[in-house]
Specification:
Helix content: 55-70%
Shape: globular
Number of strands: 0
Strand content: under 5%
Radius of gyration: 35 Å
Largest sheet: none
Mean pLDDT: 80
Length: about 900
């Protein structure tokens, strides 16, 4: 009866194929337009014929190049504009009249639009345009289903339905017609499309109105589909939009009418209940399955184990694991991998390895993913030696390592700063014919960029791009990444948009490369723009996406916004990991917000996000730099006690903290312990120790440490020599400083701007301005551009020099394009105080406040000193009138520069709302 009724309806609709003369023809859209909109090269004749003469108005017209360009712009533009709407709204001509008042770009992504455009062009080409014509006049569910079937693919069909539904969620009639459409789809064995349709409608109308929708579908379903079919569709619809209570209601109705729910739907319900932490419903559902069916399977148990482990209920997850044999289910490789991953995430790698042994003992063969999980944990802890042993053991088990596991070990070597080992592993990868991907590219190039020499980085970058090791599917990702690494961000953005426009294969890695590059460059707004394109085009953000966005905000000190973003991402179910917390954590330390950092550290543990070796190293580094060396050492011991292997960065951070506090004996002991643990001190370690001795004026010990570098085969770098030059200058031993500079030349290292600035400051300190001028001339002759430090060093010496020569030197500075900064202001304010003119310091301080000049902490200290000198009525040695006029002249030049270059940026009070707006597409 049901099939017969559908056939009658279908036959009755045949009369619509020959429409009455009063039909209004579609205008402004043709097959050629559709093809060109989808970027297809049209080689067919300019005109085509349809079966029915009434559609002759659809014959092709010339599609101008300008329209094509505007459509391309619209495809990737996400801000409302009149031009964008003009070139996109042509799709509404295929939709019912009541839905033509919205913008398609707000409903579907550019990828979905492309699918719809291609599908519509094929429908017209195959002479099925009468269906489009009929549906454009009124919202007919049977025409809608017919069009969805003609679009052939599920994605294209669902995208067209979303366009057809538009913003009609307020219309009860349209909602009910959609329900009929879902019934018809299910009757024609298109249950997945029916579920898509129901899910979309439920999400748009909300939980309250969805109850009426359920009753309507249940009341009318016997004409189209079975009890199980309609209830299964509704249950999955609620599950797809995360409505657990409503899904449970549908399950209850299934039990009442005697329908047995599908196992996959029950499994999805388990996942949703566990995600929201509704454990009571989980156990009730489990008992219900045991009594009434369907009986739990491995997939069901695996979902339960995963859900409990994700909620940090590891003990319950293990208990479920042990329950499996009692119900006829044996743990499989997925079950073991879930538990192994959970222990690794909690920093219990040794326990995870015990589970691996149990897995093998129980006869379950580990997969490549199993080893990759443990390998990643070992590398994250800094234990690359054990990681390499495990990697080599994979071969012995007859498992061939893939690209992902090579990338994991490569990343471990790079983070341990063992670039040589990373290069050797990459060569091994090439020899064995393992195809590299964009992740490989970014790991290696990033490692050489951070820890290698510039010439090696350039060579390596070139070798990778011409090696031919990358398959075609990764080549586009690599090209985008390459442009990012060489600093051509805008070109990378344009290439990415062009690739999307042409429908070529891209992965989320290409977007992550661009977002990361913008964030590193301090262009966080551009990073969010790339992110917005990413989600609009249907790509799911990864943990790397989130981390890069956080990094960009933290670099600018926008910590409150970064924290809001972190919480917002977590609420949206984004893959937030401990790296995201580490990025934010490091940002607090860089802003000297120790309380905020410690609070976040505590919050991480409370949420069950256990710090890894990188997070511990960041905490040690932050505490050490803040002067809390004892606290840093306690964290260092805690890190070692739970099995993490401190790497060079952790040791160097703690050694640096001890050196800054003058505790050289403890620092040397720690350096010795570092060697005993199998970690060789690097150049950074020696630079820290040498700097520690120089701070204490122990130049002999500093030189001994310098010679010790040579004994173990380490070559000093420019920082080593600059530290020694600075040490001699602080000791007023300019002869020793000049000897170190000569040694630099013999080692093949040319002085840089820092070297010249240090020497100029040294000679300025002993009032030898003639030597300062000579060094300045040498600097310019070497082709080095003076920086603000150079100018301020000169300025400080000028203020202390005799008036006549000071005026000549000032003219020299002005000729060189002197650019002041806050340090310049501080130098001049301090000289007003030193030369007995505190009232002038206070006067100029007031003038700078009037232009909202950004004083730093030193500025306020100087002004506070000037105020006390005035209040205490201290007898001052007054400078000459000429000197006062000269200092006033220098200060006026500085003041005039800041007045003319005063920033006019108005602080955005809605920064958090701006961040929130980035999630609209989700």
């Amino acid at each position: 009866m049901r099939v017969q009724q559908i056939s009658i309806l279908h036959l009755s609709n045949q009369n619509l194929r020959r429409p009455p003369p009063c039909w209004v023809p579609l205008t402004g859209v043709t097959l050629r337009q559709l093809r060109m909109s989808a970027k297809f090269h049209v080689t067919s004749p300019l005109f085509f014929r349809l079966r029915h003469h009434c559609l002759n108005s659809l014959s092709l017209i010339t599609f101008s190049h300008s329209f094509n360009l505007r459509f391309s712009h619209c495809l990737h533009s996400h801000s409302p504009s009149s031009s964008g709407s003009e070139c996109c709204d042509y799709l509404t001509q295929f939709l019912p009249f009541g839905t033509s008042n919205f913008k398609p770009s707000s409903i579907i992504s550019p990828r979905e639009r492309r699918l719809v455009v291609v599908g519509l062009s094929n429908i017209i080409k195959n002479e099925k345009g009468f269906v489009l014509k009929g549906f454009s006049l009124r919202f007919c569910p049977f025409f809608l289903v017919k069009i969805m079937k003609l679009l052939e693919t599920r994605d294209a069909a669902f995208a067209f339905f979303k366009l057809a539904f538009g913003d009609s969620y307020d219309s009860e009639e349209i909602v009910r017609l959609c329900c009929i459409g879902a019934h018809v789809l299910a009757a024609q064995n298109l249950q997945l499309l029916a579920q898509d349709m129901v899910s979309w409608v439920i999400a748009r109308i909300g939980a309250t109105r969805s109850k009426e929708m359920v009753e309507f579908m249940w009341r009318n379903h016997p004409r189209y589909e079975s009890d199980f079919s309609v209830l299964n569709t509704l249950m999955r619809g609620f599950l797809n939009v995360g409505m657990s209570l409503e899904a449970l209601d549908i399950l209850h109705r299934m039990r009442v009418v005697g329908v047995r729910p599908g196992l996959s739907a029950i499994t999805l319900l388990f996942r949703l209940l566990l995600r929201i932490g509704d454990y009571d419903s989980v156990w009730k559902l489990f008992k219900d399955m045991l009594r009434k069916g369907p009986y739990p399977s491995n997939i069901t148990f695996n979902m339960m184990v995963y859900g409990f482990c994700r909620q940090q209920e590891l003990v319950i997850g293990e208990s479920v694991f042990h329950l499996m044999p009692k119900f006829g289910c044996n743990p499989d490789v997925f079950t073991f991998n879930i538990l192994i991953s959970a222990h690794c995430n909690r920093g219990r790698t040794s326990v995870a390895i015990d589970w691996l042994h149990l897995m093998i003992k129980s006869g379950c063969e580990p997969s490549i993913a199993t080893f990759n999980i443990i390998l990643h944990a070992l590398c994250r802890e800094g234990n690359v030696m054990e990681a390499r042993k495990l990697f080599d053991g994979i071969h012995d088990m007859g498992i061939t390592p893939n690209t992902a596991i090579y990338n994991t070990l490569l990343d471990g070597y790079v983070k341990a700063r063992e670039i040589g080992q990373a290069n050797m592993l990459y060569e091994e990868m090439r020899t064995k014919g393992i195809a590299a991907d964009c992740v490989t590219f970014n790991i290696l190039v990033g490692g050489h960029y951070k820890y290698g020499r510039e010439e090696d980085w350039n060579r390596f970058l070139k070798d990778l791009t011409v090696s031919g090791l990358f398959p075609d599917c990764s080549l586009y990702d690599v090209t985008v990444s390459w442009l990012c690494w060489v600093g051509k961000f805008d070109e990378a953005m344009k290439l990415l948009q062009d690739l999307l426009e042409k429908g070529l294969t891209l992965s989320v890695v290409a977007f992550n490369s661009l977002i990361g590059a913008y964030s590193r460059a301090g262009l966080e707004d551009k990073a969010f723009e790339a992110y917005h394109i990413m989600v609009t085009c249907g790509f799911t953000p990864s943990s790397s996406t989130c981390n890069s966005l956080l990094m960009g905000l933290c670099r600018k000190g926008r910590l409150q916004e970064a924290r809001t973003l972190l919480y917002r991402m977590s609420e949206k179910g984004f893959p937030i990991n401990k790296v995201a917390y580490t990025v934010l954590f490091d940002g607090y330390f860089k802003m000297n917000d120790l309380d905020g950092a410690q609070h976040l550290w505590k919050e991480m543990k409370e949420k069950g996000i256990y710090p890894d070796a990188v997070a511990f190293a960041a905490l040690i580094d932050g505490l050490s730099k803040a002067g809390f060396v004892e606290e840093a050492y306690k964290v260092f011991l805690e890190m070692s006690a739970i099995g993490f292997v401190p790497n060079n960065f952790a040791y160097n951070s703690l050694i640096g903290g001890l050196c800054n506090c003058g505790k050289m004996t403890e620092a040397l002991k720690l350096e010795k312990e570092m060697r005993l643990k199998g970690l060789l001190p690097d150049t950074i370690t020696f630079n820290i120790i040498i700097d520690g001795f120089c701070r204490l004026g122990k130049m002999k010990s500093a030189v001994d440490a310098f010679l010790g570098m040579h004994r173990i085969g380490l070559m000093p770098d420019i920082f080593t020599f600059n530290i020694l030059v600075g040490g001699y200058c602080k000791a007023f031993d300019m002869v020793g400083a000049d000897e170190v500079v000569n040694k630099m030349y013999t080692c093949g290292i040319d002085p840089d701007i820092t070297t010249y600035n240090i020497r100029m400051h040294g000679y300025s300190s002993i009032r030898k301005m003639n030597r300062v001028v000579i060094i300045l001339d040498q600097l310019v002759s070497a082709g080095i551009v003076p920086n603000t430090v150079t100018y301020n060093t000169m300025m400080s010496g000028i203020c202390s020099d005799i008036l006549d020569r000071a005026m000549i030197l000032t003219a020299k500075l002005l000729k060189m394009g002197f650019i002041p900064n806050v340090t310049t202001t501080n130098v001049l304010l301090s000289h007003f105080c030193k030369q007995g003119m505190p009232e002038r310091a206070l006067l100029w301080g007031q003038k700078f406040r009037e232009i909202c000049f950004g004083f730093d902490e030193i500025s306020y200290r100087i002004l506070d000193q000037a105020y006390h000198l005035m209040q205490d009525d201290v007898e001052l040695v007054r400078g000459t009138c000429e000197k006062s006029l000269f200092l006033d002249f220098l200060m006026y030049i500085t003041f005039d520069y800041f007045s003319r270059n005063r920033p006019h940026n108005i602080e955005d009070e809605n920064n958090i709302k701006l961040i929130e707006s980035q999630f609209v597409a989700l």
